[in-house]
Design brief:
This protein folds into 2 domains: 143 residues, Rossmann fold; 145 residues, Rossmann fold (3-Layer(aba) Sandwich), CATH 3.40.50.2300. Helices cover 44% and strands 21% of the residues. It is built from 13 helices and 13 strands. The strands form 2 sheets. Strands 7-6-8-9-10-12-13 form a 7-stranded mixed beta sheet, with helices on both faces. Strands 2-1-3-4-5-11 form a 6-stranded parallel beta sheet. Helix 4 links the parallel strand 3 and strand 4. Helix 2 packs parallel to helix 11, helix 3 packs across helix 4 and helix 5 packs parallel to helix 6. It is elongated.
Length: 325
């Protein structure tokens, strides 16, 4: 059906009103600068790809109107402070921080440039804010896990390995509240936790080796960039030692860990691009409540289970969101 000319003109006029801010901004020729700070590997990162894809969907195309300044320490978190200071010197418009260590480095470097937490763990306990609903200062964004999620992952591990008595919890320092609540959950499950600091792969490898001395043990490796950067190596090492492993990111089980329970990082990083967009449109970090993931994925790697001699109960396989064969 052909619409009346008047209706067509009205529609065009309405579209012009809706898109006027975009056209006005495009005419200014402004190029936004986004700092991206991480201690994980950057090359081929699905998280960065997801973030860039969402930026493009929102109208930000490199290098036309946005420049992404990626600074990766490639698994060496001690370099984060230097890279954060470099991003401040570059006068980026916003810093996207991947992980607690990156958020802390960015926070120490600036109190004025907005900081978007793309994958922070328990930001209240870490001291980044006093409230998720009302962020303070220049920090907002997303949190990928909570104490309850970690406790649930521990429960699932016990269901997979009913004979389990001891669990080595390998974690990147900075999550004391989560460990305390996990310890309470472990008590109810009849488990003994052994917290072990994990700052680099050397420490992680030694901790995994120590946790295999007993046949009634397993390793729960907390979500962190050191673990994520070396997830495939961790999987190989654990399989060789026939050690059940679990983590809080689906990417862990996909790399060969026995199982995982947690939010998807690629989903989180896509969402962090929306925060960047809102900042560019004039919002302040204090205007944007910190978001917690509402969807969690339970993944079992059946291939790994067979490799370490574990039989997964069929009801548990049915409850999994994904079974890797």
């Amino acid at each position: 059906m052909v619409r009346p000319a008047r209706a067509r003109l009205t529609t065009v006029a309405a579209l012009l009103v809706l898109t006027a801010p975009f056209f006005a901004e495009a005419q200014t020729g402004r190029i936004w600068r986004v700092g991206y700070l991480t201690s994980a590997a950057a090359d081929g990162s699905p998280r960065i790809a997801a973030f860039q894809q969402r930026l493009r969907e929102l109208g930000y195309v490199e290098p036309q109107n946005v420049v992404l300044e990626i600074r990766s320490t490639e698994g060496k978190p001690e370099r984060l402070a230097d890279f954060a200071a470099e991003l401040v010197r570059l006068k980026v418009d916003v810093i996207v921080a991947d992980g607690n260590a990156a958020v802390e480095a960015a926070r120490q470097a600036t109190t004025t440039i907005p900081i978007i937490m793309a994958a922070a763990s328990d930001p209240v306990a870490a001291g980044f804010t006093t409230s998720l609903a009302r962020p303070r200062g220049n920090i907002t964004g997303l949190t990928v896990q909570s104490s309850e999620v970690a406790a649930r992952a521990l429960q699932l591990l016990k269901e997979v390995v009913p004979s389990l008595l001891r669990v080595a919890v390998l974690w990147e320092p900075g999550l004391p509240r989560m460990l305390n609540e996990m310890d309470a959950a472990a008590g109810l499950l009849g488990l003994q936790l052994q917290p072990l600091d994990m700052r680099d792969f050397g420490e992680l490898e030694g901790a995994i080796g120590a946790s295999t001395k007993s046949r009634d043990g397993a390793a729960m490796i907390m979500a962190g960039n050191v673990a994520l950067a070396h997830r495939a190596r961790i999987a190989d090492l654990a399989v060789k030692r026939r050690l059940p492993t679990t983590g809080l990111l689906p990417e862990s089980a996909e790399a060969g860990w026995l199982m995982s329970y947690g939010a998807s990082l690629t989903d989180q990083f896509r969402r962090s691009a929306d925060f960047v967009d809102r900042i560019f449109r004039g919002a302040r970090p204090t205007d944007l409540p910190i978001e917690q993931s509402q969807k969690y994925h339970f993944v079992i790697n059946l291939k790994t289970a067979k490799a370490i001699g574990l039989s997964i109960p069929p009801p548990l396989l049915q409850r999994a969101d994904e079974v890797i064969k």
